[in-house]
Amino acid sequence: CKMGAGMGCWVHGEDAACRDGVQGSSRTYEVVLGEYDMGAGEGPEQRIPVDPADIFVHPKWRSSCVACGNDIALLKLQRPAVLNTQVQTGRLPPAGTILPNGYPCYLSGWGRLATGGALPDRLQQALLPVVDYEHCTQPDWWGALAIRRTMICAGGAEKAGCNGDSGGPLNCQAADGHWEVHGIASFVSGLGCNAPKKPTVFTRVSAFEDWIAEVGDRGHGVLGCQDVRVLGHQGTRVPGCQGVRVLRVLGDHGTRVLGC
């Protein structure tokens, strides 16, 4: 299973095959942070277990209809990650953000290097410009039946995601220089990973931030903040939240903070 960005004690990502049958599963799950070369133990890796009861699949996900969307899940780590130069928290884009056509973003993962090709040991990355909804839904591209507005298309014939990249993050740099996780790799074409006019399709994270916040506040702790409460407003610093600034304050003064 490949996972996307982390938020301190939480990881968001998805892989339909991994998540089916999670409820009541006797399997053992863990998240590996700081990984680069899966063929070698390099030292900075952190292996943190995840209880199957702490895997939250979107309620509208249907494994029989990947093109229906909602291809996202949240995992709560059994202990906080240790942040260092190799392990950092991800940052969510503002809710509802839609990137313009051609916006430069990067996919990273350990997926196949080509259709039917080898799986790499070392983490790969590829520049995948955004293909906007109007282009991606044209009849000779993916078409309107395969693409929802809760998705992002990116890449194309030259570079694309491939089998094994599912759940990997699509990172895009904001105007102020920081990086945001805008997408979670979902599916590619059955014609091949880099088929013409069939860009890689991602879950659009900015379409699911209300659900992410709801899961985090459903008695399961705070995303990235280790259950702190703040007496401040959006933009203020939060002690105990790894020194980052609050992105969202729900409710009134002193309420729980999500998405630090």
Automatic annotation (TrEMBL):
Keywords: Disulfide bond, Hydrolase, Protease, Serine protease, Signal, Zymogen. The keyword Chaperone does not apply. It comes from the Eukaryota. This is Peptidase S1 domain-containing protein. Residues 16-217 form the Peptidase S1 domain. GO terms for biological process: proteolysis. Pfam families: Trypsin. The keyword Nucleus does not apply. InterPro entries: Peptidase_S1_Elastase_sf (IPR050850), Peptidase_S1_PA (IPR009003), Peptidase_S1_PA_chymotrypsin (IPR043504), Peptidase_S1A (IPR001314), Trypsin_dom (IPR001254), TRYPSIN_SER (IPR033116). GO terms for cellular component: extracellular space. It comes from Strix occidentalis caurina. One of its GO terms (molecular function) is serine-type endopeptidase activity.
